[in-house]
Fold:
Amino acid sequence: MRHEFDILSPDGNLIDIHCHRQTPAGHVQIVSLDTMEFAAGPWTPSPDLIAPSNNESAAKTLLVDHESRRYFSLGIHPWFIERQDRNLALQTLANASQNPKLLAIGECGLDKCIATPMSLQIEVFTRQIECAEHIGKPLIIHCVKAFNELIQIKKNCKAGPAWIIHGFNANPVLAEQLINQGCYLSLGRALLNPRGKAGQVLTRMPLDRLFLETDAAEDTQIGAIYAAAAKIVGLDIATLQEQIHGNFKRVFLND
Structure:
């Protein structure tokens, strides 16, 4: 299926599937937005989540500039569950579902390092899984020290849109468990330490389950992440780029 926008033009663009700040480079970006911010209106984004560009609202640029390669994901982050009306947040997700710039639900997920009760986190996460299944969009998932719970939820879910674990930086055994459950892994700045856990995961995982991201890093460009990943797996950047383009088209564009 061809997407409305030609985001994979053959001009050397890289794909950053999860970021919080727009950059001037012409690469494909999926900017992560939270429903709490989005519900306030696309003209007044939080500067903590998106940095304005050229003194204009970044969200305005994101949502109305159909020629750009910037897209967005939208979700209820576990950190912000108790800071907003959950029913309103879920309605915000539903209202945004037909926006052609929306490519994924998230980031959403589970986090054991916050005070929000796990039962509430699971409830809100489950509702977002249902939303993703209903609109046919992949999930971008935040998970901190709650992988047992996450895997159990995944086992209980019917086959549906892809789950992408963003910023994965745990051990290869856990990576294998997630991949065996059908998940994709998105690796980021941790790859700049080739001897770290993310580098070990990358050398062992199938590349058809790989994405790359910058997340909230302000001093790291997506090109540096691609270069580090290519070096770790012994590929040239163009070959790695082609692989991730294929993954992207399959997961985000149903192609």
The longest strand covers residues 102-111. Residues 27-36+67-160 form a domain with the TIM Barrel fold (CATH 3.20.20.140). The first helix runs from residue 35 to 38. Confidence is low (pLDDT under 50) at residues 1-5, 7-11, 42-66.
